[in-house]
Amino acid sequence: MLTKLGMPGIIERFNAPHHNTQIAYASEEVRLLCFVFRCHLKGICYLYAEEKGKPDSKGPGTGSKFKAFRLPITKQLQKALKDLEAALRLSSESPPSQTSEALDNVLEALYLPNNTLDLFQDRYADPVAIFTTLRAIHKDGGFNAPELLTCLAVRIQFCIRLFILDFLNRGYTRFKKACQDNNREEYVESIIREWCSELKPTPFGTIREWIRSLSRVVRNTPARANILWLSDSKKGDAVRVWNHTVYIDSYLAAVQKTLEECLTHLQEKVFLGLDVVLAGLPAEDLQDEHTKGFSLFPLDLEADITQANEFLNRLCMATQIGLCQKDEETGDVVWNTSRTWSSVYVLMHLLSPPARGTEEEMWQHSNSPESPRHLFYSQNLQTLVTKSNYNKTSSTASIYKAIIRVIPYKLALILATLLQIVRPVELAAVLQFQSGSPERALEVASLYQTRLFVSSGQTWTAEGMSRRFILVQGET
After folding, report:
1. Burial 17-29 (b: 16+ CB within 10 A, else e)
2. d(C-alpha 376, C-alpha 292), whole Å
3. Residue 22's closest CA among 159, 160, 136, 157?
4. Which residue has the higher pLDDT, 322 or 134?
5. CA-based angle 367:368:370, to the nearest 5?
6. How far lies 240's CA from each of 116, 222, 229, 235, 388, in Å?
């Protein structure tokens, strides 16, 4: 590690690669620029944002009307390429700084694109990703060996790093003038966090992910295990999720305890200790998804809500209150109903494949003009199931798949009880005390008649659903 007198130290040698390495890295960026610029000159570029939603669009590279290759670009890159073309055609008349500025704008549009939302859905909406993929193709077909590909991806990654460093230096001058605090560290961190972080929908994030995958293949090392099944003779089988170890027997016991506590809470806090029998499940389901207002548990004047009326009468007799009186006990019943729904929601996540909050907040138990219902009865399974069409690749693949999630029988009974017996009473209380204007009363009634997750006259949100996990966890 010691260096001779007058020779560069280890740090200097590390930061200054060999001249041939510099040429190889710079040449890769030149290839990228030539590839994109040649596509521009040949007129085979297209604006991805304008064609991604068209029926005949098959994504980047090809289309049903185009058998030849096409390169997806943004308006930002399109303008930068036109400016570069104009600067090169006038290079003999214009100063070199104009051409250099045009090159910087092209690289900025490539490395720091303004279509990261498109990249989140389709990484091949990125010219850098397409170029890197094409570089991996063998001349005789197929792909080159992984050990020959890693260095190519590393070169592009290094070029992105260098450009962002230059971008930071150039941009800080403008930032310094606009910001009185002159916090350089905050400025640098914000740029790096946005464009140089892994697992982000950016050209750098994509290249980094490919480098990791290629390196594992070359080194013959397995991918990092985020989930591991373990065996422990003392505590039984277990699964490790990241750094958390979950023992299966303990987990099942805790879930069973939460289910029993949910049922106890329903009987003691919502039914106030009254001997109310849980609602049964429907005898059949004709799978009607078209009739407006159809539900397994309808909530309207024509529906049979005998059990709900019986519960309301017994509730009023036992507590000597009526829905015309706004008192603390009535408010407690409404709040405890919401608390029971929270436990049901958490148990649905624990006992069946969980859905996204943005999906669940739109779930309906009855058909509406906006959407068919999501709650069904399975004759084969003899329990309730949810069905939804949400899939994060639907917008790009145009393939919509039904996702079926089974609700265990005992939990399904609690859910049916909340919808069939408790919800009519809750709606009556909410309309009496929280509806306000007649317009608001109609809106609240529509929510309870349609949506699955509603409390206190409001639909649940994805953020609120996350908080309900914390609420239930803190009370168990």
Report:
1. eeeeeeeebeebb
2. 15
3. 159
4. 134
5. 125
6. 33, 17, 6, 14, 30
Q: Which amino acid is at 442?
A: L
Q: What is the 3-state secondary structure (H, E, C) of 236-253?
A: EEEEEECCEEEEHHHHHH
Q: What is the pLDDT of residues 292-314, one digit of tens each?
A: 999 999 886 555 567 777 777 77
Rounded Cα gap, residues 453 and 442, in angstroms: 17
Burial 407-440 (b: 16+ CB within 10 A, else e): bbebbbbbbbbbbbbbbbbbbebbbebebeeeee
Contact criterion met (CB below 8 Å) for 214 and 146: yes
* C-alpha to C-alpha distance for 62 and 59, rounded to whole angstroms: 7
Q: Which tokens in the block code for residue 255?
A: 């879930």
Q: Which two tokens stand for residue 401?
A: 């798949």
At a CB cut-off of 8 Å and minimum separation 6, what does 133 contact? Answer: 124
pTM: 0.55
Residue type, 357: G
HSE of 94 in the Cβ direction (CA atoms, 13 Å)? 16
Separation of first and last alpha carbons in the chain: 58
Please write down the long-range contacts of 135-143, taking CB distance under 8 Å and 24 or more positions apart. Answer: 135/31
CB atoms within 10 A of CB 346: 21
Length of the chain (residues): 476
